[in-house]
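Help needed: design a sequence for this.
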């Protein structure tokens, strides 16, 4: 039985977090006829109580965070990355964005270009350019490996005491006008990294958590990431997936699929979600480019997506904790091969 005290405490936290009743915070009269005032802690463009937004001061509140991550499958962490780090990553993006304007456009890894250990790539074309293995691009990207704003939550959800922790993929994505990513994933898929909880005990056993750091503000028309709340628990594919024979990813922009919710962020905010949730992105209709960094975390049992081998330079520059994530198992070779 839930105590009255717990209910009162949760209620207070929800209101403070902007997750509860909108009428406490803004009103139509104050904001104009068609909109509520935006809560100061809500993402740009969003109205109060729409999304599980976690403020910096609530970032260690496991009860709140676990509740909403379990229920919805995603969280938005406000102001999770320092402005100086966002600026440094943007500088790197700015210096390399000309790679996306080259012709012919990138197809998968075909004719990719290497920038040190970083490689150009695209998933399907319209999703833009991925600078894969971005963790090799300098200290600011190394700090992301075990960033204090999210790493303890990721460890808890993956149950890293039992399962270890690794990075499945690290990338910086730039998407221009017209770009999008199709609808994909969902609780119905039999893919080992799409687990969420241990089926018998209910313990956390998340097979993959995506951490997206916004490097630009992402509002309406900017090609926001979209999700279907709670769909990591669905036994059925989304109708758009079913119609295409339950494909993993459809070629249509996810934003136009029924039930999809656009998630708006300010630069420096982080969106954490289970890869099992049905998601994608809206088409970018605004001019300009959306930039974000994506780190995907998995138990160490899951192989990396493209098998980039960490450089000696990278391994030598990491802390022990970062090293354990980048290379959970050192390679074993016969002595004459070392
Ligand atoms: O590009 C986005 O906004 C979504 C990224 C995505 O679909 C993924 O992480 O699998």
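Sure. Designed sequence:
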């Amino acid at each position: 039985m839930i105590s009255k005290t717990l209910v009162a405490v949760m209620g207070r936290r929800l209101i403070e977090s902007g997750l509860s009743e909108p009428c406490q915070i803004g009103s139509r009269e104050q904001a104009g006829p068609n909109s509520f005032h935006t809560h100061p802690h809500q993402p740009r463009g969003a109205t109060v109580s729409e999304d599980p937004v976690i403020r910096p001061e609530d970032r260690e509140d496991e009860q709140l965070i676990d509740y909403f991550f379990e229920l919805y499958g995603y969280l938005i962490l406000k102001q999770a990355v320092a402005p100086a780090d966002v600026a440094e990553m943007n500088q790197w993006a700015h210096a390399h964005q000309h790679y996306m304007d080259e012709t012919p456009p990138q197809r998968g890894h075909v004719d990719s270009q290497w920038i040190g250990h970083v490689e150009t790539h695209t998933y399907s074309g319209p999703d833009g350019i991925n600078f894969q293995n971005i963790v090799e691009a300098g200290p600011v990207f190394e700090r992301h490996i075990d960033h204090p704003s999210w790493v303890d939550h990721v460890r808890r959800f993956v149950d890293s005491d039992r399962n270890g922790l690794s990075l499945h993929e690290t990338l910086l994505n730039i998407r221009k006008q017209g770009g999008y990513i199709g609808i994909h994933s969902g609780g119905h898929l039999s893919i080992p990294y799409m687990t969420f909880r241990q089926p018998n005990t209910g313990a956390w056993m998340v097979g993959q958590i995506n951490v997206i750091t916004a490097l630009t503000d992402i509002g309406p028309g900017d090609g926001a990431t979209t999700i279907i709340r709670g769909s990591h628990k669905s036994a059925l594919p989304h109708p758009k997936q079913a119609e295409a024979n339950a494909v993993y990813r459809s070629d249509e922009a996810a934003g136009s699929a029924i039930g999809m919710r656009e998630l708006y962020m300010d630069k420096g905010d982080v969106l954490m979600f289970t890869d099992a949730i049905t998601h994608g992105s809206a088409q970018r209709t605004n001019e300009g480019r959306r930039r974000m960094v994506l780190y995907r975390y998995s138990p160490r049992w899951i192989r990396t997506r493209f098998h980039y081998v960490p450089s000696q330079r990278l391994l030598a520059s990491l802390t022990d904790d970062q090293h354990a994530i980048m290379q959970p198992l050192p390679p074993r070779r016969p002595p004459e091969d070392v």
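The domain at 73-328 is CATH 2.60.120.620 (Jelly Rolls).
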